[in-house]
Amino acid sequence: AALKHLAKMTDVYDDKKQYACSENINIDSILNFKIQEAERQNIKVALDLSVPAKMSIASFDLAIILGNLLDNAIEAVAELEKERQIKTNINYDKGRLIILVENPYQGERVKDGNRYLSTNKELSQHGLGLENVKSVLQKYDGSMDINQRSNIFSVSLLLFV
Description:
Elements: H1 2-10, H2 25-40, E1 44-50, H3 59-78, E2 85-93, E3 96-104, E4 111-112, E5 115-116, H4 129-139, E6 143-149, E7 152-160
Parallel strand pairs: 1-2
Antiparallel strand pairs: 2-3, 3-7, 4-5, 6-7
């Protein structure tokens, strides 16, 4: 609800367009905002969403997780001329929230140990997104799996909520 309010204030959120309609206002608000941002950059988002209206996960934690994952995907796909699509699956089953964000990318993703380094030119302002996601995952005994194959970057999360 807070994201919708902020977006309306800045006049970037078109509440007539609803991409996510799961009745979970926290997830729907974040997804609708980010998908609209992607579409403004001519990026398609394929969404598979199956979550209950209520889950025991803080809206702030959802914003960190979904915001960072989708921001990273949008930034990577915005550099492409073709294959401008992000695949997003969010499903809840028996106390488990499973999130997958997958996108094509160009160039090379550099790692320092287990940490991916930002490709953004403003390094002082970026590069902490996945680290922030990891800290939220710890609250929910969650795990994250990152894969790169054939220029597809994939992040899957498992949280116990």
